[in-house]
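Q: My labmate handed me this sequence with no annotations at all. I'd like to see what the chain might look like in three dimensions before we decide whether it's worth expressing. Could you predict it?
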Amino acid sequence: MQKFIDLSHHIRDGMMTYPGLPQPQIGAVFDHEHSRSHYAGRAEFHVNLIHMASSTGTYMDAPFHRHRTAPDLASIPLDRIAGLPGIVFASSLPRGPGQSGAATRAISVTIPAEDLRGKAVLVATGWDARWGTAAYWEDGPYLSEETVDLLVRARAALVGVDFANVDDTSDLSRPAHTRLLAAGTLIVENLTNLLTLPASGFRFFAVPPLIERGASFPVRAFAEITEVLL
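A: Here is what I predict for the chain of 230 residues:
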């Protein structure tokens, strides 16, 4: 029996987005009522008009996002974004100043490289519980340099996180994006529900539209789990 777990956030009109990016506007070219005259009153349709930054909600970064001559969204083959064997690395939420223990936001994945090759590596922290609040966009988790080294060395197909940015945003060189996308490891940010997944044994899907010169775009990410009926 197949079970599907949704790993994407909803996109809503006027929702909070990454600081500095515009809020999405979800309107209509024409709505049901105003469309009726086009069909002599015999039918009605709603046609959306959507204005938003491509890095809205749960989205994928193509290599072109960081590297101008690298593959764009339209160049990514389906076998790199659909049906990938998935693995989850669960990490506790980072401690901040004033909390017990050393302050740290860097997430270090400790999975053998041979277990990551060709897989969707999903990093679960529970930071997604803050989604929809200003606290989500505070300085949050990011991937440590050692984790980026591991993912590149392991040739992971994709890395997905349940927080806002794989990079420490205080580092303007964006080393995680730079190295991962140069290696062809796709990035999915702002995932949710990762802590509900098993550690392995599922398939991961995150499929954007075929946009030429597309750098990033929202995806409907989900996991497919095969449940054994007794």
